Please model this.
Amino acid sequence: MISRTLFTDILMIVFLVALQIFVLNRITLFGKYTPVLYPVFIMFYPFFRNKFQFLALSFILGLSIDAFLYTWGINAFATTLIAYFRTLIFRTSTDTSTDFFSFQSLQWSQYFFFILSSIFLHQLLVQYIEFFKFSRFFEIFMNVLATSAISFIFILMYALAFRIKQKV
Amino acid sequence: MGFLLRLFSKNGLFVFFIFLQLIALVLIFSRNSMQQSWLAGQTAAFNSWVSGYIDEGTSYLKLKQINDQLVAQNKLLMEQVYGKNSGVPVFRKVHDTIGGGQIYTFVDGEIVFNSINRKDNYFTINRGKRDGVLPQMGVMAPKGIAGIVINSTDSYALVQSVLSLNKIKINASLKKSGYFGTLTWKGEDSRIMHLSDVPKYVPLQIGDTVVTDGKSAIFPQGITIGKVSGYEVDSKTGFWDISVELTEKMGNLSKIYVVKNLKKAEVQRIQDTLQATIKREK
Model:
């Protein structure tokens, strides 16, 4: 396993952005729902590394996605937010109030909960800021739920393929 | 500065997070058309909300000035409506220093003290000799007549209210038929005055308008006093005793207009010659 450095992180961002923009954004399930995969970078970033670097990389990841989708700042806002609150979401997912952050220590249900709440929070922010209309609250909320569910499946596939639970 | 450094060293990650979020927010509101237009709309709404309050405040401060303007305008209009001497024959050239048919002017003022519950009522107004208010001038209210000046100091005048038992007799006439009589107050109700000396054969109707008669030189002709609210034959005199409901509520008077008759001296002079003639004949 290649040890992760700033360089590999940037490579991974490039890979995820390319995957998201050129592959996943062309998939529209049930006519309108697009799976979102790129937050896996934030979710499965190793704990106990430089948090400033982590936040900055998350911001750059969101901004790169924005650059391709012409939604300046919206994804960057959401990704930076879930990056900052990742430990909080993780703590909420476990039943022990431990400071030992590792996915190996999680049960599968807790692991699912962590992924689902992360992607849900991310989509909630992105879609509400993007549509920016409270008059269409329920319509947007349904959209958030559907997109989160579909993205959850894709993220789970990614996590299982790269055996992340066992590694990180 | 020390505070900022301490904040950053203690909560560096949080400050960095807020910094990144601020960049994102600035981007959101400056580069996305929907958010941009929303921000513009909110700014405009806030602007109009604040300036609305400011406008309201300034207009409230201007109210007194506006009120003064309205009173001045009203005075001018009243001079136009009531002040013209319709009786001046147009074909005769009269040497007239005030140049035209103006016989009444008005001085506007406010009541500073008022009473309605005595036998003889008086009120004080904030206009006096300095404004040309002299005894025996009529005082009008916006909707009717109010009284007659009985005394004036430099800047105040005492007015005998129309609600005075024996001291006030006003020449009034029925607008419809033109018959005139004497308007007095009987001391019971501050809203009702009585019109007497109208002959019994004059047809009457509840609701007929009673106006001032021009024959007294105190009030201009045709000012509305009130409406007929009841009538019966006075058994002592055999004339109608007509109850007149005043259109002006004497209890809440505040603005008044003093009627100045510019030709009063002239009228007085001609009437004095009558007295002299009577005396001579005796």
Remarks:
- Chain B is about 35% helix and 30% strand.
- The first strand of chain B starts at residue 104 and ends at 114.
